[in-house]
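quick one, 396 residues, struct below
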Amino acid sequence: MPQKKPTYLSLFSGCGGFDLGFQQAGFRGLGAFDVDPAAVLVHQQNVQGQCYVADLRTASITAREFGRPDVVISGSPCQGFSSLGKRKQNDPRNRLLWRGAEIAVGLKPEIIVLENVTGVLTNGLRSHFEKAIGILEKAGYETATLRITCSDFGLPQIRKRILLIANRHSTCSDIELGKSNARTLGDCLNGIRSCTNHEPIVLDKNTDEFRIANRIGQHQKLCNVRGGDRAVPTWAIPEVFGKTTLDERRILGAMRQLRRQVRARDTGDADPLELSTIKEQCGVQAGTAIKSLVEKGFVRQIGRRFDLAHTFNGKFRRLSVVHPSPAVDTRFGTPRYFLHPDENRGFSVREAARIQGFPDSFTFEGLQSIQFRLVGNAVPPPVAKALAEVLKRQLA
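---
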């Protein structure tokens, strides 16, 4: 007789990245649940088994109705913990982390996995993570916390995540996931032109966005507050931001360093500068240049101090074919945040999906903004598969 497949049930399933990885490792799904109808639609079209629209804050999911799974996986929303958000302790989405644990222990699986961003471990937010641990351990599970980086699983992106793993009958402190060498971004994007969900929108040559992008090389970004070869300051793009003299550019470069070195506060990483500080570094004639830079919009006056008018740190970041991508997020189709390595545009949905490890056969529906949200919020299937393979051995 063929060996019975281990089973899983998926909470906060999104479009199905977590589920797909488990199925690729030989698991059978008993049910998947998410509050987003758009995510459920894509899940139903691409992943085997039933996916249901359900508000897991209040929904009742019982073993009597869906069966008792071997594993429960929960990928609760990360927005309240993410560094891209405001990280509010009272964000109602944060409670869903331990709500997933509550639902899971009620199903009495052998193993439970909660996945989220590393922000769950930061001060002020960690209480939600600790509450989830308390729920699991009170129910008789032993827990372990794994920190993972997606580039360790063959993906061309630096995406750091936390896995909280709980096991009823054996230790999980020594779990080690199988790793593989990361592909380059260039290899990942190769041969993509005929794929579904690949509808790139190239920037109009008559726009400032195009003119800025045209000045940004691979592994560079528009940034006034950092030096080095990777930062392209606004004063290096006169066709958009206006012309400056050699002396003005020298002062702007000096201000970029001084605002981080001459501190007025104990917090933050930079402060506005007194004119005397700038003159001491650049000469007494700097006063005239500063006045000109204020008029041109490169410098702003704050009381009796002066600072760079634009920071743009992290904007118009052009990725490199030989370096890992930052974590794919919902903004990946927006050029002002992420630029394609070779073209003046953002990424297509298919390109973002490939970086996340979705196969080209996995298709997305709806408005592009919805598709990018689904891709960016997903657990990368190769990470899920590597985890599932280890858990499958523990269940044997």
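The chain is about 35% helix and 15% strand.
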